[in-house]
Amino acid sequence: MRFLAFLFFMAVITLGLGARPALAQEGEPAPLFASEDIIHLSIRGDLSGVARSDGSLPATLSVEGAAPETHAIQLSPRGVSRRRRDICTFPPLRIELPSRPETGLFQGQRRLKLVTHCRRQTSHDQYVLLEYAAYRLYNAMTPLSFGVRLARIAYYQDDADTPTYSRFGFLIEDVDDVAGRNGLVEVETGNFPSSRLNPENTARVAVFQYMVGNLDWAVEAGPPGEECCHNTRPIGATETAASNLTPLPYDFDQTGLVSAPYATPPPQLRVSNVRTRVFRGFCAHNEQTRAAAAEFLAARSRLEATLASISELDDRTRRRASSYLNGFFEDIATPGEVDANLVRECLS
Known about the structure:
This protein is α+β, with helices and mostly antiparallel strands. Helix content is 30%, strand content 18%. The protein has helices at residues 2-18, 47-52, 125-139, 175-181, 199-212, 286-298, 300-308, 315-331, 335-341; strands spanning 39-45, 57-63, 69-77, 93-96, 111-115, 148-157, 165-172, 185-186, 232-236, 246-249.
């Protein structure tokens, strides 16, 4: 009887959460994020210089294939830990186009984040692909998420005839575009109390972060000296909205799902490994956490299919990622497991 009651509970919750707000269906993604097909790009410029730079440098971005296009861009390094030479030999990048192209794959784009390989070894492609998978997993749960586009990128040093190397990377949708296709806008705000957050959407973020094993995030505040929020961006009805804010999570290289060689858990959490899950949702959202956990459990086959669809993952990496996701589904297999592993660990 308890198992049947749980199935009924899941069905009710899933039906309720499956009905997305009308706003979430208002817009379509820009051409760059309208497909999951891999694109082939080349970036040409002072690549050794940009890795050491604190500013931006001129470069050229080209799309290869049946519909080629070339854009003059500015490249700049971004991130914190991945800009340290003892951690990564190549940083994540920010791409800026001087004006928004009116046609082509990059139509409407102005500023984009590019997630790159950390080191030149081909094995580091797998960490890029796993971080890409994390974004795709959240895309499978809600349109209130950053779109991503996987690319095979040939990097050319200045006027060289052959690329220095070719690696996987992926582009991340701009926050204004995520907000716009959901009928919302980015909220310009500093740190704020959790009472301003949408409970359902925030609980979904917290359960997702638990699923991928992310300990490196916050929805109310940023690190000391930085604006809100840490690896999340709030969106809402207006730029000055004071309620019903939805956090958009990003930056998953420190997750247990990815298990990057340099990933370490925050010292205040007192866990020894990033693959150790710690729930960081709010106690005020406990009921929404239970509902979100049921939503994820009901979507298990869809999430597993999403991971399986990333064919560029090698077999060993895919098996390890699948095993890690299985651990999450075991943690939320019943209402009792949800309470033991998530609800009782909530933040007051």
